[in-house]
Design brief:
With 205 residues, the chain is of the alpha+beta class. It is built from seven helices and four strands, in the order βαβββαααααα. The protein starts with a strand and ends in a 6-residue tail after the last helix. It binds glutathione (GSH).
Length: 205
């Protein structure tokens, strides 16, 4: 299995989950902007959508979307309890968090903040959106160590991966102490530290 990655992106999420799961995979680095694959080739020939993460199976099957990839990995090793069993309300709640991070936080707020062409006025609108979403997350984390309660799951890894972008877009997390504590807690996990190290430094763009 090949996991296509780029430093500073959402590929940190499945990389963390692979390490938490203890499953073997091969990471393939790409340049997020030029789409060049390290070692040669154009990433768009693998994933026409051009974005990471993507998981390429040995039989040629391609799985895109971080939320789908991490659930697939979690389901390979149920003993690690990285996601509740399929078909349960707990699993649906986990999916609600993954969708929240993907749509409300990533695409609906962080993504536009990374774009250089967007006006400061528009950026403030996206920061407002992040403030409302982080206030919700902070209230939830006031009562639990992990998003799903007592166990670390792929949802915690998702929160970590995207919250790590806050300083890069000048978003102040200090009004959200429970989010900050959660971020620090997840960041201390050996798998998370190893994944960050392996993703490598974020290139200047
Ligand atoms: N819907 C995708 C979005 C992935 C995504 O936006 N990845 C960004 C990096 S965080 C990317 O590769 N952007 C480059 C591009 O869209 O060309 C997912 O949730 O996995």
């Amino acid at each position: 299995m090949k996991l296509f990655c780029a430093p500073g992106t959402l590929s940190l999420l499945p990389r963390i989950v692979f390490l938490e799961a203890g499953l073997a995979f091969t990471a393939v680095k790409i340049d997020e902007h030029t789409k060049a694959i390290e070692g040669g080739g154009d990433y768009r020939t693998v994933n026409p959508l051009g974005y990471v993460p993507a998981l390429l199976f040995d039989d040629g099957t391609l799985l895109t979307e971080g939320a789908a990839i991490v659930q697939y990995i979690a389901d390979q090793v149920p003993s690690r309890r990285l996601a509740p069993p399929n078909g349960t309300i707990e699993r649906a709640k986990l999916q609600a968090w993954l969708n929240f991070f993907s749509s409300e936080m990533h695409k609906g707020a962080y993504g536009p903040l990374f774009h250089k062409g967007i006006s400061e006025q528009s950026k403030e609108m996206f920061r407002d959106r992040l403030r409302a979403r982080y206030a919700h997350l902070d209230r939830h984390l006031a009562d639990c160590e992990y998003l799903m309660g007592g166990d670390f799951t792929v949802a915690d890894a998702n929160s970590f991966a995207i919250t790590d972008w806050a300083p890069r877009v000048g978003f102040d997390l200090s009004p959200y102490p429970h989010v900050l504590a959660h971020h620090a807690r997840i960041g201390r996990r050996p798998a998370v530290q190893a994944a960050m190290e392996a993703e490598g430094p974020i290139p200047n763009t």
